[in-house]
Amino acid sequence: QAGGIRRLLNTSSKEYKRFNLKEKALEMAPAAIIDLVMANPGLLRRPILLGEEVILVGFVREVWETKLLP
Fold this sequence. Notes:
Blueprint: H1 14-18, H2 21-24, H3 30-39, E1 48-50, E2 55-57, H4 61-68
């Protein structure tokens, strides 16, 4: 999926800015990003919805409505 694990990062969080992840995340291994998120849960973009045919990360009303409503 586009963006990979970096798509899970909350780019609006204080931690994202404090760790300068706009630059660093592009070079980080996925395992390093996971470790950083585990130590700093504020880095995780929420909500996350995992369904049988859909994965949604972050809340964008139009996207959620398109994917979830008939």
